[in-house]
Amino acid sequence: MSRMQGPLSALRQLPRRVAADGAVVLAYHDVVADDAVATGLTVGRHRFERHLDVLTALGLEVVSLSRLVDALVGGERMKGLAAITFDDALLGVHDQAMPALTDRAMTATVFTVTGHLGVRPPWWPAMQRTVDPDELATLHAAGLELASHTVNHASLPSLSPAQVEYELSTSRQELELLSGARVDLLAYPSGHHSPSVRVQVAEAGYRAAFTFLNGRITGGEDRLVLPRLTMGAHVTSTRLRYHLLRSAPSWPDHQADSVGPDRGVDSQ
Fold first, then answer.
1. How many domains are there within the chain?
2. CA–CA separation, 21 vs 27, rounded Å?
3. Neighbouring-strand partners of residue 31
4. Confidence of residue 19 (pLDDT cuts 50, 70, 90)
5. In b/e form, how buried is each residue of 75-93, taking b as 16+ CB within 10 angstroms?
6. At 202, phi and psi to the nearest 5?
7. Angle at 122 between CA 226 and CA 139, to 5 degrees
8. Contact yes or no for 91/139 (Cβ under 8 A)
């Protein structure tokens, strides 16, 4: 029996459609090889592949984050849509996640810190390095979408308005130059945002921005405070299935008006 037969056989027993309303956005950071130790917000390659298979088994349609936001803005039905995102553009997205996605004809969105490519991230030195510009271009050429995670991964509410404007506008311009595509989606570094920051996000031309507070997107949310499901080593296939079947009202409030260093990331 191959390694795939056991898990896939079990997944075939899952219901073919997701009962819960709303769309889901999965927020990954890094994917590591199976012989590496996955801890915290990293996920092993095999577990990541099982996550993708759970999405398929539950009948979810994996779309780009832009397509999901199009549906939200257009008032379309959100049920059954899922998007996969990666924060920080770490090397495992290129080496491990991209092949798994390509094998399944799935896409994802990479929230990129444009000022720190090809280096160990100073905001998270224990992680492996970020992708370099050539690797980032390869991700885009493979069909992954690029989106902004600012220039320096600073907590935006702690910056001056001029600094916030620089972080938002420069990262967008750099990614558009590299990709040749429109960039209008943002993930707040560390999930931190405030009313004044959101005003600047809108003024900088972003259609939507994402936090780290967990929940589903049903259509009634503020587009600049959209929830995701935080993925990490703790999320087994069974746990993911449970969260994908949870109703939107069962999640804690994710429409917080302000999130900063004094408020931790909500857990699942």
1. 1
2. 19
3. 43
4. low
5. eeebbbbbbbbbbbbbbbb
6. -65, -40
7. 60
8. no
